Amino acid sequence: MKSDPDSYESQVGALAPANAIDLRSDTVTHPTPAMREAMYRAEVGDDVYGEDPTINRLEELAAEKVGKEAALFVPTGTMGNAIAVLTHCRRGDEIIVGDRAHVYLYEVGGSARLNGSPARAIPTLPDGSLDPARLRAAFLGDDVHEARTGLLCLENTHNMCGGQALSPEALHALAAPAHERGVPVHLDGARLFNAAVSLGVPASALAAEVDSVMFCLSKGLSAPVGSMLAGSRAFITEARRGRKLLGGGMRQAGILAAAGILALTEMVDRLTEDHANARRLAQGLAEIPGVQVAPESVQTNILFFDVLDDAGQPRNEAFTHAAAALGALFSGGDLGAIRAVTHYGISDADVERALQIARAAVARATATATSARH
Ligand SMILES: Cc1ncc(COP(=O)(O)O)c(C=O)c1O
Predict the structure, then answer these.
(1) CB 270: neighbour CB atoms within 10 A?
(2) Does ligand 1 lie within 6 Å of residue 124's CB atom?
(3) Model pLDDT, residue 16
């Protein structure tokens, strides 16, 4: 259960009935009927020539939403983060990143493979921020023996920290030591709008603290494909070259951008429903004996919990398999906890049903443990 919970390797879907409640990730969301209609009608052109009017519109809208000069439509969040490294860093520059960040754990070592940029990983704190002393000590480049630091990479909301949202003030405190040294800051904001909605601030207030930001259209915002990378006009002009290098020039992709426009105009405010459902799910789980969860720490649409047997031994994997067989899918985190993510495809009724299934799955998982000991 230590692989990327948003990847195929962690899927237990094969165990589940067809109508299973899918809490593995918000990446499983399907496009809305309005998105499908807009995709059908989308005006398109060759985006590598800059001639796709729908992509151009999406890029302008995205830049405006995050308060940056320009934005670039990219196929995935992973590619957006990789392009940020390619664009900000010289070859061989180090990047500073938290040791529980998606960029560090689950992006195939892209900064090193694509740009020769090693990751200097420093401890991620439980709220998704970074240890301040370790951060200050991590900047290199004054000494001839050292690689230069080319980038600080932050994450908001923080996936492996259970969707914790960093406020503009918290982001400022993290970005300031980098900016004091002339080091740019990139934000992996795959779920930036979850953070903004949860904190009650505009996404632009979060992006204001960083030089570039990536956010996903294809997670809680329900578009089928696509992420945005935003920054200064000069940064995005160069990023366009990085996208081409990685094979991300997608031609008539206005078909996809049409869904992205609706993701940004119609799907942001409803994220509060996902956050309320995550909180309700955590509260219900807390009532099941054997489940360890902290409902008060749930801020957005992600929560982690553990299932323990009577002897206090973890039964997370047995629980996940039992729940899948009963019709509720969960995934896992980097430290072995069970992850649940609420999204557009999860209703209030699904949460209640998932709780019933969780109760039965805990009983099965812990009974298996008891019988295995005898
Ligand atoms: C925090 C975070 N960053 C980046 C990504 C990568 O996005 P994508 O799956 O579109 O490559 C993910 C995906 O789950 C994520 O959770």
Answers:
(1) 13
(2) no
(3) 80
